[in-house]
Design brief:
single chain; 8 helices; five-stranded mixed beta sheet
Length: 294
C-alpha cells in the first residue's frame, strides 16, 4: 500500500468514527421525550430528591419545564443527527473496508509470491545438497541387482573410470563390488588392477542427460565395441516379479544379454547410457564407464 492509500484509509476510518459519535449524540437527543415523561412523574421526582437532594429534584423540574415546549425541535435535531451520522458512518466504513480489502488482497498476493520463492529456494537447496552428496550403492540395491540378474548368464564386465577423482573412484569400487556379489566376473586383464577398476588417466568423459523426458544426468556409460550390430533395446519376453521386470534371455545372444543387463542397472536406480566408443574396450568386451558427477 502506498502512502497515499494509507492516508485515505486513515481518513475514511476517521470519518466512520465521527459518524458513530454523531449517531450517539442523535440518540441522546432523541431521548429528550423520555426525560420529559419521567420528569413529569411525581414519584420519579421524589426518588431523585431522596437519592440525591432537593436541589437536584428542583433541577429536574426546571429542565422538564425548559425542554417540554422545545421537545419537537430537539427531537428533530436528534433525528437529523442520527440519520446523518449513520450515513457518514456507513460511507466511511464502506470506503475503509474496500481499501482494507484491497490491502489484504495485495498482502495475500505478496505472501503467495514469497511462498513460491521460498519453495523454489528450498527445492534448489535440496538439489544442491543432492549434487554435493557422493554417489553410493546401497545394500538394498545390491540385493535387488542380485535378484534381477539371478537367471541372467554371467559374462565379464570391466569397470572403468574417466577423469578419476575420489568420488568417481569410490563409486566405481561400489559398482565393481556389486558386480562381484552378483557373480559377474572381473576380466582376466583387470584382476591385477587396484580394486578391479581401470583408471583411464588420459580419457575425458562428460556426463550427459538421459534420453527421453527424464532429464537425469547419467552416472555411467555401458561401453561395447559392437558399434554396428548392437540393438538396444528390442523386445524381450519378461516376467514381472517383486516390482521388477526379469527377462528371458538366450545364453548365446549377446544382444539380449547386454540389453537385459542395462535394463537391470536402470531398474536398480543406476542411470546409464549406451556408448559405442572404439578403443575403450577390446573386441568382444564390455565395460561400465563411470562418469564424473555433474
Amino acid at each position: 500500500m502506498t502512502s497515499s492509500d494509507s492516508a485515505w484509509l486513515s481518513f475514511w476510518s476517521g470519518l466512520a468514527v465521527i459518524g458513530c459519535i454523531v449517531v450517539v449524540i442523535g440518540v441522546v437527543l432523541e431521548g429528550a421525550e423520555y426525560f420529559v415523561k419521567w420528569g413529569k412523574k411525581k414519584r420519579f421526582r421524589k426518588w431523585v430528591g431522596a437519592v440525591f437532594n432537593d436541589d437536584r429534584r428542583r433541577l429536574v423540574v426546571s429542565w422538564v419545564k425548559y425542554i417540554k415546549p422545545r421537545i419537537l425541535p430537539i427531537e428533530t435535531v436528534g433525528f437529523t443527527m442520527l440519520v446523518f451520522g449513520l450515513a457518514v458512518e456507513l460511507l466511511g466504513g464502506f470506503a475503509a473496508g474496500r481499501m482494507q480489502s484491497k490491502e489484504n488482497s495485495e498482502l495475500e498476493t505478496t505472501n503467495t509470491q514469497l511462498s513460491l520463492q521460498i519453495e523454489e529456494l528450498h527445492s534448489n537447496n535440496l538439489a544442491l545438497q543432492a549434487k554435493l552428496q557422493p554417489r553410493i550403492i546401497t545394500d538394498r540395491q545390491i540385493t535387488n541387482f542380485i535378484f534381477l540378474t539371478e537367471y541372467l548368464p554371467k559374462f565379464p564386465v570391466r569397470v572403468e573410470v574417466a577423469m578419476p577423482s575420489e568420488e568417481t573412484a569410490s563409486f566405481a569400487w561400489q559398482v565393481r563390488r556389486m558386480l562381484n556379489k552378483a557373480t559377474f566376473p572381473t576380466p582376466n586383464s583387470d584382476t591385477n588392477l587396484p580394486i578391479g577398476v581401470d583408471f583411464l588417466q588420459n580419457a575425458y568423459s562428460v556426463p550427459f542427460i538421459q534420453g527421453g523426458t527424464t532429464n537425469i544426468w547419467a552416472d555411467a556409460e555401458f561401453v561395447t565395441d559392437r558399434t554396428n550390430d548392437f540393438k538396444y533395446f528390442h523386445f524381450l519376453a519378461s516376467q514381472h516379479t517383486n516390482g521388477f521386470d526379469r527377462y528371458f534371455v538366450a545364453d548365446n545372444d549377446t544382444n539380449d544379454l547386454y540389453s537385459a543387463f542395462i535394463s537391470y542397472l536402470i531398474q536398480d536406480g543406476i542411470e546409464i547410457e549406451v556408448s559405442y566408443t572404439p578403443g575403450f574396450v577390446e573386441k568382444g568386451q564390455c565395460a561400465i564407464l563411470i562418469k564424473q558427477k555433474p
